[in-house]
Amino acid sequence: MSDDLFELDGALGELAGISSSEASDAMYILGLPDSVLDPSVRLLCGQYLLGRAVTIGRVPLPENASVADQHPEFSLAIQEVIDTAPRGAVLVTAVQGVGTHANWGGNQALRAKQVGMLGVVTDGAVRDIAAMPELGMTVFAQSCSPRSGQNRFATTVKNQPVVCAGVVIRPGDILLGDADGVVVIAPQNALAVAEKAKDIALSEKKMHAHINAGGTLKEAVQRYKVKR
User: Fold this and answer.
1) φ/ψ of residue 126, rounded to 5
2) Are 177 and 140 in contact (CB under 8 A)?
3) How far apart are CA 183 and CA 94, in angstroms?
4) Which region is the signal sequence (predicted)?
5) Domain residue extents for the chain
6) Which single residue of 50, 92, 155, 175 could bond 74 by disulfide (Cβ 3.0 to 4.6 Å)?
7) Is the pTM of the predicted complex or chain greater than 0.85?
8) 3-191 CATH
9) Is the dihedral of CA 188, 189, 194, 199 positive or negative?
10) Each residue of 94-123: pLDDT tens digit?
11) How far apart are CA 74 and CA 159, in angstroms?
């Protein structure tokens, strides 16, 4: 994948500081498809995530198959994606919601830090979570597990679209996440989402000021709520 997907074209800068709730509301008002990851994927480490996706798709192995039986050319795909990731990238690992074995851990995080990645988003499990703050990794996952995913999953997709927690994520898509969850924003929609989200944030400030001054919630919504 070429680095041009990750050029700082202003979109990330415009979205900086916007919350996942503001982004989700903005996309709804703009009539864009819902792209919030299922809430089973939650923030386990860090506070805020804003970066571009690099993607891995994996499937759990049945008892009668090995990694060599399914796309053996992808046996080191996760390592390759991390090694070649542009700065500011976020690894998305889609594992069909299987959270029994970890697909991210300390070794990946250490290398990710060296190349300038920001963290990981997965609908599966991670491990070595206690090491993530020191490595500066923001982690969104379904669960933690000490079990290794080695020989439990086969990688079938490398830097192509994946479905993670109910949302299609493409390489280069923008991931915006905080304690409320993760929103996926297509790059071509980023500036419009940022503009509308800022309108929403301003409206919220006006609503809060009205309520703090003794006004009712009904009045605040009628006067200041951003609508389509």
Assistant:
1) -130, 170
2) yes
3) 15
4) none
5) 3-191, 193-224
6) 155
7) yes
8) 3.50.30.40
9) positive
10) 999 999 999 999 999 999 999 999 999 999
11) 11
